[in-house]
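Reviewers of the previous submission asked for a worked example of the structure-prediction workflow described in the proposal, so we include one complete record here. The input consisted solely of the amino acid sequence. No template or homolog information was supplied to the procedure at any stage.
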Amino acid sequence: MKKRERLLMVIVGVMVAGYLGHMLFNRLLQAPLAAKYERVEKLKRDITKKQGQLRRARQASAKLAGWQEQSLPSNQERAASLYQEWLLDLVGKAGLKTPNVDSGAPVVRKGVYSMIPFSIRGRGTIEQLTRFLYEFYSANHLHQVTRINITPVPKSNELDLSLAIEALALVDANDATKLSGERSERLASVEWGAYRPIVDRNLFGQTAAELDPADFAFLTAILDVDGVPQAWLTVRTTGEILKLRPGQAFEVGQFHGTVAEITSPDIVIDSDEERWLLTLGEKLSQATALPPGF
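From that input alone, the workflow returned the following structure tokens.
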């Protein structure tokens, strides 16, 4: 074999040995080492995740302990009775007139707690309503006002009030014979005086004497009377019902108009050289201006 051929074989052998050595290195050392590093990183991620879960579990446990202190008694009948009695006392202290406090059927949620609905109806001033809400949210119960309907009473400073309330009773709560008397820290201020600006402001923008009757005049019916269409416009501030026919002029507060057409469910009104469309159920102030020539 020539010298040149032997050199070539040596070079090829070295290359093959290097390739095989690299494969063995990757297979026997580098790959297992990379797998161990990946395993270590996965374990670190798992530990971080478990630590987060443990932290959240501890926080949830602390919250649950607090909620159990705030909860109504676990016995649903006792909870409803005690809480309804508490609400009656609260509306009495607030000074609401003719209060009516009712409770609904409890609703069990996921076997963890019962939601008991309550409703309050009554009449009072904005100060009395504010006082009620202040005392309500000062109490450290698991409860909330979910809806408030407020209707100004004409020619007075009073409001017709309707409130929907939900209170919770945890299944694991103590079956106490009375509600918690602790005060809540959920309010921005614990001092009643901090909420006086609500009472002093005119939240509804107008006094009863300044209310625009057009905001309380609703198209409540469209009838056929002896073959002639008739529209009923109910003015809720006075209880008056205007029974209008086509061509008939009428006046509600500052609004002057004449019924041009009656076609259920709409009527067309001429007023100040403009035409307005009013649909059944709408109030007069919601009438839509029609294009010229309509």
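DSSP finds four helices and 13 strands in the chain. We consider this example representative of the routine output the project will generate in years two and three.
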